[in-house]
Amino acid sequence: MRSRTVKEGLERAGHRSLLRSLGVSREEMDRPFIAVVNSFSEIVPGHIHLRRLAEAVKEGVYAAGGLPFEVNTIAICDGIAMGHEGMHYSLPSRDVIADSVELVVEAHRFDGMVLLPNCDKITPGMLMAAARIDIPSIVVTGGPMLSGSYKGRKIGLASVMEAIGQVRAGKLSAGELEELESCACPGPGSCNGMFTANTMACLVEALGMSLPGCATTPAVSSAKDEIARLSGMRAVRLVEEEVKPSSIMTFEAFENAIMVDLALGGSTNTLLHLPAIAHEAGVKLTLETFDSLGRKT
Known about the structure:
The chain has 297 residues and is α/β, with parallel strands linked by helices. It is built from 14 helices and 6 strands.
């Protein structure tokens, strides 16, 4: 185990002393150290519930014989950041996220990781980190937001965007728009539409980096907690079996993800993210790859 570097031998007495200050027992020192990389944020609807999922992940890790340590990185909500100067900061955050995960995981010599992203730049950033570090890893995407309801019909964030034009055209009143915007996004989760966040969650699953059903299980569902717990357990098994992202995120896996993307009609932002993730995994993806698969799918 990589974590032996910080917990075994005479020279590591000081390291062990610091670990004991965290509440780690002597017996727990023998467990694999698993980083639970959270991106909880109170300004991002897709991330506000991730503390809950992180607790379930940690329960799973401990139950399977590992020792979880929760660490954190940043998250930006593209929906709130778009349409003004803030959007200049969104894409760069992806690489900051990848770098920050690499820094904390490598510095502390974790044996494995459970990654908790959900929204546009966080999911690809964490996948880039997983590919770059290449230690046993699994992803738990936070899950989609439920649809809203307005006058008996299902609505989502796109409904609000469309309503802005209807108000300008005189087809909808400002009062009706206010009613619509108050119920379009009813709670936690990634934006309720086939935008970048939900697309990337599906592609994480298609790549083989999350458990089946993770992408489409709603954020507020108890099934999401179960998936989080099982993912924590699976992370320990991946460490024991020495299964690394490099053996999962192969060229064929990326081809599979692209075909899923095409079949779903997913976000075109995947043209930015999949090649970046593939690059970290040592896999070459080009626009020609997308075009070729698009003609077959």
